[in-house]
Amino acid sequence: MRLYQAIALVFVASIAATGTVRAQQPAAPPSPLKRTVLQTKALGTVPGHDGITVLAELAVGGTAPRHMHPGEELVYVLDGTATFDMVGQPTISLKAGDVFFIPANTPHVAKNTGTVPVKLLSTYIIETGKPLATPVP
Q1: 14-53 per-position pLDDT tens digit
Q2: CATH code, residues 33-135
Q3: Strand 67-68 versus strand 92-95 pairing type
Q4: How far apart are CA 77 and CA 84, in angstroms?
Q5: Domain limits of the chain?
């Protein structure tokens, strides 16, 4: 056996033994929804809860993953247009300047229907230590 064949055989055997070579998995597409937490503050008037201010941006043509929040959400639409579906409510159309409210633990989803990213300013009242959002199938 030639030297290069022996080296190749040892290399292949070591890969098989360690399992270090794996098929490349395709990268998950980036989420069309980006949240930036602007502030989190313990609320003196609601002990055990935080007020959280978030800037949410939904890409053009994007649909936010269906999710819910463990607390109430008060929303102001800064820019863009979207449709919004919330369990138990008819679909609404949103545009810059609109406001809306999402009750705690209510599944919802938004879809950008315009030509610019949708920008939302949201304030959440959430029990301290709970996650901001939870995916809902």
Answers
A1: 444 444 445 566 776 778 999 999 999 999 999 999 999 9
A2: 2.60.120.10
A3: unpaired
A4: 12
A5: 33-135
